[in-house]
Amino acid sequence: MYNDFFNTSTRTDKLNYRSLAIKIASPEKILSWSRGEVKKAETINYRTFRPERDGLFCERIFGPTKDWECYCGKYKRIKNRGIICDRCGVEVTES
C-alpha cells in the first residue's frame, strides 16, 4: 500500500510542468512582505490565553487567531473581510 501511494502511474492528479524556477528573495522583497514590529517579549496572557498586543503572537502583526474575527470581537463574519478594526487594529481575514 505504501508503494502504491507514491507510484506516479496510478495517480490521477498528475500535472505536467515544463520547468520550475526558484530564486532567493532579495532583502527589499522580504521587507515588502513585512508589515509590523514585535516590540515586547510577551507571548500569551496567562489569564485570558489570548496573544499580548505587540508581543510575539500579536494579532495586529501576524493576523487573527480565529477566521474572519478581529481581536476585540467587533467584526465576526466573512462579510467584513479586509476591514481593519478601529478598536484593536486587526485586519479581518483568514487565520
Automatic annotation (TrEMBL):
EC number in record: 2.7.7.6
Pfam entry (one): RNA_pol_Rpb1_1
GO biological process, one term: DNA-templated transcription
Any single Gene Ontology cellular-component annotation: DNA-directed RNA polymerase complex
Source domain of life: Bacteria
Positions of the RNA polymerase Rpb1 domain: 18-88
UniProt entry tagged with the keyword Ribosomal protein: no
Top-level EC class as recorded in UniProt: transferase
Protein's recorded name: DNA-directed RNA polymerase
